Amino acid sequence: MDSSIEPLFLDLAQKTGTDFTGFDQTSGYWEFKSDVIHLRSLLENLYMDNSFWCDFLQSISGEHKQAPLESIVLHYHLESLTRSLKIHVACSENIVEASIKPTFPSVSDLWKAADWHERESAELFGIHFEGHPDLRKLLLPNDWQGFPLRKDYQAQERYHGLKIKYEK
After folding, report:
1. What is the DSSP letter of 37?
2. C-alpha span between 122 and 29 (Å, rounded)
3. Domain ranges of the chain
4. Multiple choice CATH, 3-163, 3.30.360.10, 3.30.460.80, 3.30.70.270, 3.40.30.10
5. Residues 6+ apart with CB under 8 A from 11
6. Distance of CA 168 to the CA centre of its chain
7. What pLDDT score was predicted for residue 42?
8. What pLDDT does 1 receive?
9. Rounded CA gap, 31 and 77, in Å?
10. Helix (H, G, I), strand (E, B), or coil: what is residue 158?
11. pTM of the model as a whole
């Protein structure tokens, strides 16, 4: 861990209106928390600023939390191969109404790998990625109902005549 980068992260957090929470010894990642409004600014800076230059998007993964408030949390794992930095950004959006999809900004224009990560999260968690060029389904059939990685997901009994839900 290079602690000389910490003041730069603190400046970035202040500049982008996000929270810098420090270095996680267990994971080896520098940690940020952001709300949806400031997420795009933070990620753009991590990608474009030469101090960080996060040129590799390892993953975007979703998480459905039900307490204390029902929310969708997206986890962005970034890496700067040239600066030897690993960064984790967590962004949470509350689910106000089940019929309204939580919306996050797309970063598929920054990292091409985000295209499939965002498509997967959209279909499995019911997220809308504002600005994504093509959010068609990646894993499930087009007429699949529900979002299988949400904790409140109820599998349909049948799909085109095939039994889906099995009880033990």
Report:
1. H
2. 25
3. 3-163
4. 3.30.460.80
5. none
6. 34
7. 98
8. 65
9. 10
10. strand
11. 0.92
Residue (of 38, 47, 49) closest to 14 by Cα position: 38
- Dist CA 9 CA 30 (whole Å): 9
Which amino acid is residue 41, in one-letter code?
S
Residues 6+ apart with CB under 8 A from 28: 1, 86
The helix/strand/coil state of 128 is strand
For every residue of 57-100, DSSP letters joined together read EEEEEEEEE-SSS-EEEEEEEEEETTTTEEEEEEEEEE-S-TTS
pLDDT, tens digit, 9 for 90 and up, residues 15-43: 999 999 999 999 999 999 999 999 999 99
Among 1, 85, 33, 19, smallest CA distance to 10 is for 19
How crowded is the C-beta side of 81, counted as CA atoms within 13 Å?
4
